[in-house]
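Lab notebook, bench 4. Still working through the backlog of constructs that have no structural model yet. Next entry is a single chain of 183 residues. Request: give me the structure tokens for it.
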Amino acid sequence: MDIRFLSSNVHKIREVEAILGPVGVHIVPAPIKIEEIQTEDVQRLVRDKVLKAFERIGRPVFVEHTGLHLPGLNGLPGGLTQIFWDRLQADSFVSLVKNLGSCLVTAKTVIGYCDSRTIHYFEGEVSGTVPDAPAGPRDFQWDCVFVPNGFSQTFAELGDKKNDISMRRKALDQFAAFLHGGK
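Model written out:
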């Protein structure tokens, strides 16, 4: 089964292919640029993005958004994670979190799939902590500053093992079940 995925992020595309490929879903990257609304409401952001993508592509498509939610910042940055990360990067992000008094963080993925009639949502989340210093490769956004609960390494240090436990994995497993006739 071929399915279009709106993304130009090669790391995300590889992760999605690694998770969905083994269950018979072939990803067709759709690297078009969609202007995202700026909101902390991730479901609203995903809805807007998938509707714009469907309008441009004219075929069933899915989008995903993954955000960090810090209790020390009342759940921010959420839907604003990319802007937040672009401004701070790894070292400043860790410094900010150290000053919050809580290193707790939840990573949440929301997938939106539009088949022309309906938008379907699939969500996954993983709780963890922000370490005292970034660790591992810094080439995939905030993976170097997220240690999932039950682990002593960041997502970046876990490498491909991340795909077994990530929030994206949880959301994609639900999406794959839906595509194969599940609810």
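Notes after review: The mean pLDDT is 92. The radius of gyration is 16 Å. Flag for follow-up if needed.
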